[in-house]
Amino acid sequence: MRSTEPATSTIPTLQEAVGRLPYAKGHGTGNDFILVADPLDVHSIEPGQVARMCDRHRGIGGDGLIRAVPSSTLPEGRAILETRPDAYWFMDYRNADGSLSEMCGNGVRVFVHFLVCENLVEMPVGSTLPIGTRGGLKIVTRLEDGYAVDMGTWEFIHAQAAATNGLDSRVETTGLANVRGALSVSMGNPHTVVAISDTGELEGIELTSTPGVEPLPAHGTNVEYVLAADPLVSGGRGSVRMRVHERGVGETLSCGTGACAAAIATRHWAQAHDIRQWSVQVPGGELGVGFVDGPDGLEHVVLSGPAVLVSRGEVSAA
Ligand SMILES: N[C@@H](CCC[C@H](N)C(=O)O)C(=O)O
């Protein structure tokens, strides 16, 4: 090559990396996703391709990518079909960096709305749909103004420390004075919740860098910063504000599993176990978190909120 020739980039364009691919774009309270219908399981989208598509400058942009595939095409889906043969659709979710997560609470609502809009399922208001996920079976109900998801059971990641101290780890965050104690909750995926004492503190947090969590759960964690309303409970409903740094993404406008973890941690700290309805305000809107008696006799968490499709397109060689 002559030295006067411009250097050619070795980085493939999105089109070279992905080829032709129809997609839709949707969000739930500002947590946005690229959605791909793959009923024949022909688009094996690799982690690097997901990262390219989710890139907000060189790609389509999104906090994650969700592929709609039959549960029968993945081992995790086949396991669910053994007990729920009607869980036809599986949410194959990846974070913006291409990593897998067990669960996405905003994603599963947007995923079901996408199935409805693609005419892949019929779902009148009030009806339910079983969905396979890496975090197990989730039952989604269509509401007048969104969807409610039975997220199943939850657990503290370090049960003993949670019961004795209410805290199990420490989190260091840019923009927050002092290292803070935190409580880790599994919603299928891991969360570490930090209590914040005032609005100025919540707004001063700088989430362009990953918070330092010690000890870090085995597969990393999502970190939620939660400010309790004053009073915490009004009209029988608990209320909190939350910001979140998502594993594999960065700061997002909302996180459904994070909202559940925020309500669980706050309820535990306040010993307010009888408060079963919570409102979680996130930068992108409001989510509802409910605690109900599940059909298995255990406490289940129900997440509710909107799901919106905003556009359709096709990744193609122009
Ligand atoms: N935004 C999601 C959670 C997505 C997965 C998360 N980043 C993880 O890695 O666990 C939600 O709405 O729950």
Automatic annotation (TrEMBL):
<feature type="binding site">
    <location>
        <begin position="105"/>
        <end position="106"/>
    </location>
    <ligand>
        <name>substrate</name>
    </ligand>
</feature>
<feature type="active site">
    <location>
        <position position="104"/>
    </location>
</feature>
<dbReference type="InterPro" id="IPR018510">
    <property type="entry name" value="DAP_epimerase_AS"/>
</dbReference>
<dbReference type="InterPro" id="IPR001653">
    <property type="entry name" value="DAP_epimerase_DapF"/>
</dbReference>
<feature type="binding site">
    <location>
        <begin position="256"/>
        <end position="257"/>
    </location>
    <ligand>
        <name>substrate</name>
    </ligand>
</feature>
<feature type="binding site">
    <location>
        <position position="222"/>
    </location>
    <ligand>
        <name>substrate</name>
    </ligand>
</feature>
<feature type="binding site">
    <location>
        <position position="31"/>
    </location>
    <ligand>
        <name>substrate</name>
    </ligand>
</feature>
<feature type="binding site">
    <location>
        <position position="95"/>
    </location>
    <ligand>
        <name>substrate</name>
    </ligand>
</feature>
<feature type="site" description="Could be important to modulate the pK values of the two catalytic cysteine residues">
    <location>
        <position position="246"/>
    </location>
</feature>
<keyword id="KW-0413">Isomerase</keyword>
<comment type="similarity">
    <text>Belongs to the diaminopimelate epimerase family.</text>
</comment>
<feature type="site" description="Could be important to modulate the pK values of the two catalytic cysteine residues">
    <location>
        <position position="191"/>
    </location>
</feature>
<keyword id="KW-0457">Lysine biosynthesis</keyword>
<dbReference type="GO" id="GO:0008837">
    <property type="term" value="F:diaminopimelate epimerase activity"/>
</dbReference>
<comment type="function">
    <text>Catalyzes the stereoinversion of LL-2,6-diaminopimelate (L,L-DAP) to meso-diaminopimelate (meso-DAP), a precursor of L-lysine and an essential component of the bacterial peptidoglycan.</text>
</comment>
<dbReference type="Pfam" id="PF01678">
    <property type="entry name" value="DAP_epimerase"/>
</dbReference>
<feature type="active site" description="Proton acceptor">
    <location>
        <position position="255"/>
    </location>
</feature>
<keyword id="KW-0028">Amino-acid biosynthesis</keyword>
<protein>
    <recommendedName>
        <fullName>Diaminopimelate epimerase</fullName>
        <ecNumber>5.1.1.7</ecNumber>
    </recommendedName>
</protein>
<comment type="subunit">
    <text>Homodimer.</text>
</comment>
<feature type="binding site">
    <location>
        <begin position="246"/>
        <end position="247"/>
    </location>
    <ligand>
        <name>substrate</name>
    </ligand>
</feature>
<keyword id="KW-0963">Cytoplasm</keyword>
<comment type="pathway">
    <text>Amino-acid biosynthesis; L-lysine biosynthesis via DAP pathway; DL-2,6-diaminopimelate from LL-2,6-diaminopimelate: step 1/1.</text>
</comment>
<feature type="binding site">
    <location>
        <position position="189"/>
    </location>
    <ligand>
        <name>substrate</name>
    </ligand>
</feature>
<feature type="active site" description="Proton donor">
    <location>
        <position position="104"/>
    </location>
</feature>
